Amino acid sequence: MDRMVADRADGIDIAFDRGKAWSKYCKELLNFVSRRMQLELDHAKKVHCLANQSKIAINEHFLPLRDVFESSFDNDIVFCEQTYDAVKHIQDRFIKVLVMLTHIMANFEFRKSLELRRDDHERQRRALKNEWMRVTKQVKDTQQELLRARSLLGTRDDGYRRAQESFIRTESTGPAVGAEVVRRRKELERRRKNEEEAFTKREEAQSQVEKLENELERREQLMEDTKVVLNSAVLILDVEFIV
């Protein structure tokens, strides 16, 4: 099951939806069992009270069929007592779970209801989903950063190309004479410096793109690994809830 879910592009979403549906399913079952037991218990209490009152009321010995009705009352009382025992057994067996915790200094026992287990299941499911959202957000953020870095690299490429062309044009200009020689030399030096700065900026942009490409590859692999782990964790979580 986990392999089938892991192979799907939307597998992690399916797993989380399944976990959410399972949590709701357990909640509804617990609600039904609790309310049904309470109804049975309330009914048994009323019948028990009615049977006792009726048994006390017919205390004359000469009344016809008195033994038959008293026997019926006794049967109702026994049935109600059995209902009490059954409800108590269900509460102890299915609603409450005995959990043992070992501590360094002492051991103790406590009862944990299925409602608490369901809440714990829901909390763990949310934690897994938050982890998945965190990992996918990292991938999306890196993708956005890479797009911006590539755009900047394109700008730096254009800037370096223009600076290079400007330097070449200045360098290929005809020979200067007189005061023009000094001005030409300064202009050439300035354009050479501009070219070097543009080249440095382009190299930095290229380095940033390569860094983000590697980071994106790493995070995408991490996302795939996390997807497999979370799929298994969600399925195990559902199984553990009913064990």
TrEMBL record:
Record flagged with keyword Kinase: no
Taxonomic superkingdom: Eukaryota
Domain F-BAR: 1-243
Keywords: Coiled coil
Gene3D superfamilies hit by this protein: Arfaptin homology (AH) domain/BAR domain
UniProt xrefs under PROSITE patterns: F_BAR
Coiled coil: 178-229
InterPro entries on file: AH/BAR_dom_sf, F_BAR_dom, FCH_dom, GMIP/FCHO2-like_FCH
Protein name: F-BAR domain-containing protein
